Amino acid sequence: MLTPRDEADLAEAVSAADGPLRISGGGTRPIGNPTAGAALSTTGLRGIELYDPGALTIVARAGTPLTEIEDALAAEGQRLPFEPMDHRKLMGSEGEPTIGGVVAANVSGPRRIQAGACRDSLIGVRFVDGTGTVIKNGGRVMKNVTGYDLVKLLAGSYGTLGVLSEVAFKVLPATESRAVLLIEGLDTGRAIETLSAGLTSPFEVTGAAHAMKGLDGAPMTMIRIEGFAASVAYRAGRLKDLLEGFGDVTIETDPEKTLAGWAWVRDVETFAGRSGDVWRFSIRPSDAPRLVEAIAPAECLLDWGGGLVWALAEEGSDLRAKMSGIAGHATLIRASEETKQRLGVFHPEPAPLAALADGLRASYDPKGILNRGLMAAPAAVAA
Amino acid sequence: MQMPAPNPSILAKKARIVERLSNVLPADAVIHEETETRAYECDALTAYKCPPLCAVLPSSTHDVSAVLKICHEEGVPVVPRGSGTSLAGGALPTEDSVILGVARLNQVLETNYADRYIRVQSGRTNLSVTGAVEHEDFFYAPDPSSQLACAIAGNIAMNSGGAHCLKYGVTTNNLLGVTMVMMDGTIVEIGGAHLDAGGLDLLGVICGSEGQLGVVTEATLRILRKPEGARPVLMGFDSNEVAGACVSDIIKAGVLPVAIEFMDRPCIEATEAFAKAGYPMCEALLIVEVEGSPAEIDEQLGLIKQIARRHDPVELREAKDEDEAKRIWLGRKSAFGAMGQINDYMCLDGTIPVSSLPFVLRRIGEMSKEFGLDVANVFHAGDGNMHPLILFDANKAGDLERCEALGAEILKLCVEAGGCLTGEHGVGIEKRDLMTTQFSSADLEAQLRVKDVFDPDWLLNPAKVFPLGATEGRRTTRAEVA
After folding, report:
1. Which of its termini does chain B have fewer beta carbons within 10 Å around, N or C?
2. What is the CA radius of gyration of chain A?
3. Which chain B residue's Cα is nearest to A160?
4. Residue A303 in 3-state DSSP?
């Protein structure tokens, strides 16, 4: 495995490559079509380069372990706003998640509905394109419209446009206190209405999820409030009043329990270690009940007020084909190599958009060596 | 400011181009008489003017597609225009270009409160997006100062911010999807009402591309429920440095105000004379606003005032009621107009790390003396987005040039301090030639390659954003065949 020690080393490795490269960070998120080639890991590019709490910004090399970043932020009472998911339990993978991997897969968690996705907090990148050229874009300030925003383009490009060497984020103060409102036993339609009522209230909901099967097997609807203690207590109370019509509302404020509960949602722990393929849908929240019905009997975990649907399905089944009429996209997160190859991991794009994406990849990676085919449509995967 | 020489072969076929455009648009949507095209000769960067070949005002995505198809076939550059409020010359035409104005595309197409989005045509003004959802207590968060006039199309082109983006983000963080017409007339849909468009984040690179990648005709925007309330506190300090340090301390303390606005003495004086908001006469003034219920506001402002007191404020005034809150904001909101009353000015837009505020403000003061031009500062301090206003006299020979030279030095200072040339106004023509201070040629080439993919013939707003020297080969290849 190639493990360059710094950016110059990385540029050298890519420039010298005479065949495809399989690029990874910590390797804990094996998402994408199967790819071939020599393994290249960014774990050698390690360390926080700059952390300026008074400016709410942190800059780190791509291979820095996520825990190192989170610990540094926590020591100053700050955090990454987008609550990145840990894929290890769901994917059965091992290793140490890196900050570069989080960016490459644009990984966000439940707080995405309020604080934005990983790409929204990302304010700068340095990367090596397919010719071995080092490119920087954005910077370390939170408002920046100087030139094109390649920062967003790189986030979620899964290493197919370039290999990230450095990433910079806008961070936010961590919150002092947390409360979770729980309602048991709702069907999907009613659950989405409940979440929507919370999200359209002025009480700043930072988590809105519904499990068809909660920890004790019954459906569980969850709404999270964060902030200063007095404010959390006030808003939780107001929300409870607002939601009484939907069912019996209980408020959980135990820090350990609520932390574990949202990690359970964030990491889709409910599907960990269970057989079956895992699909991830991004849709309009109000379409969730229709989708859940269309893909039945798949078991679902709904986050983002219903806009994010995780589904555990029979192996090899094509849930994407059942979306008919529902706008959005479906990603096949966990499945056998054969199923991934056949169905394609990423949602097929309309021809003009696919042409733009292909054009960008051909331009940034003219040799076609960076995670080749990882995001391709099924026909191209087979070829 | 240099612009490319117009292509004589395009000027020569003006009649044919106008005729073809008139064939696909209503008569009043094609403006080609010299007296009328003057209305489109500049945007809010009025120092530079040039009437276009003609201007078109399509009313539908289909019309935009028809226009672009013709211009593509004829090899004519197209300059998209929202409301023409760009401070960077983003909508400045060249003599051989067609202005494509989206002002007639101003309809609300769909509102969905349960899913928290609105779909509008892109010529709709920023403020009228909020206007369309206000009765349900919702709002659209990005609020550039020009929000009464500026169009969503321009907001997307420039990735506009505003006073409240410390908490709510800028346009790119509130944009869910677009309908866009490519230069060859192809209509594409990117994203939608769901979060995170699939595939590569094309939406992310289109937002802020200054109308160089496509013409956005419709946008799906995130709308938010209004907070229960908001209240500002005004604080005065006896030096810029102390005010800057106070901003940094507030941010470090874990409170997240929705806005932290900064004004220095020259700006306070001009504003007070103009708007009579009752501001204290001091060296620097901060307006900090927080949101929530009355009790939540009390708690946050309590903490903020505690921090402010550590910096010995000369004034600490909390709004007691709605009326007082309005007056606190009145001065800040009329700052630009007030400066315009007393002087010609150039408004800069560099962003710096908040922690460098004291240093950068001190350096700007020194540079102002060196150049012999006054500089007033009014800006979004919470996110480090500065707006130094350089005061000059347009009627005095050499003053504009001196002002531009000082502006360039201040922007270079922002870059050296770890910041950037522009935080929310865009590059346009204004900062085009400074791009090399922030980017290496490889960095710029990576951006140019994006345009190569979206607009291979370099016809969309081609003379903007990048130094002309860097784009010359790309622009002239096509011009030769036109």
Report:
1. N
2. 21
3. B200
4. strand
Query: Hey, is A88 helix, strand or coil?
Result: helix
Helix/strand/coil for A309: strand
| Domain's final residue, options A220, A240, A266 | A266
CATH number for the domain spanning A321: value is 3.30.70
Closest in B161, B173, B256 to A173, CB measured: B256
B194, B225, B256: which is the final residue of a domain? Answer: B225
Q: Is the ipTM of this complex over 0.95?
A: yes
- Decide which of B183, B210, B225 is a domain's last residue: B225
Query: 10 Å Cβ neighbour count for A47?
Result: 11
Q: Where are the alpha helices (DSSP H) in chain A?
A: 7-16, 66-75, 88-91, 99-104, 112-115, 118-121, 150-154, 188-199, 229-243, 255-266, 288-294, 337-343, 351-364, 378-382
Kindly state whether residues A201 and A69 are assigned to the same domain: no
Q: Are residues A184 and A205 in the same domain?
A: yes
Residues B185 and B245 in one domain: no
Is the same domain home to A43 and A163? yes
- Cβ of B450 within 8 Å of Cβ of A231? The answer is no
First to last CA, chain A: 26
- Whether residue A376 lies inside any domain: the answer is no
- A375 closest CB neighbour out of B199, B256, B442: B199
DSSP H or E segment with residue B290? strand B284-291
CB-nearest to A363 from B444, B449, B466 is: B449
Q: Using CA atoms, how far apart are residues A316 and B196, in angstroms rounded to an integer?
A: 26
Runs of H (alpha helix) within B311-440: 322-333, 335-342, 357-371, 399-416, 435-438
CB pair distance less than 8 Å for B201 and A199: no
**What's at B190, amino acid-wise?**
I
Provide, as residue numbers in chain B, all residues whose Cβ is less than 8 Å from the Cβ of A285.
Answer: 114-115
Check CB contact under 8 Å for A116 and B173.
Answer: yes
Residues of B in contact with A349 (CB under 8 A): 198-199
Which structural domain, as residue segments, surrounds residue A337?
269-343
CB contact under 8 A, B254 and A173: yes
Does residue B66 lie in a domain region? no
Q: Give whole-number Cα distances, A151 to A43, A147, A164, B146, B197, in Å.
A: 21, 11, 10, 27, 15
Tens place of pLDDT for every residue, chain A, 383 residues? Answer: 999 999 999 999 999 999 999 999 999 999 999 999 999 999 999 999 999 998 999 999 999 999 999 999 999 999 999 999 999 999 999 999 999 999 999 999 999 999 999 999 999 999 999 999 999 999 999 999 999 999 999 999 999 999 999 999 999 999 989 999 999 999 999 999 999 999 999 999 999 999 999 988 999 999 999 999 999 999 999 999 999 999 999 999 999 999 999 999 999 999 999 999 999 999 999 999 999 999 999 999 999 999 999 999 999 999 999 998 899 999 999 999 999 999 999 999 999 999 999 999 999 999 999 999 999 987 654 43
CB < 8 Å to A288, chain B:
none
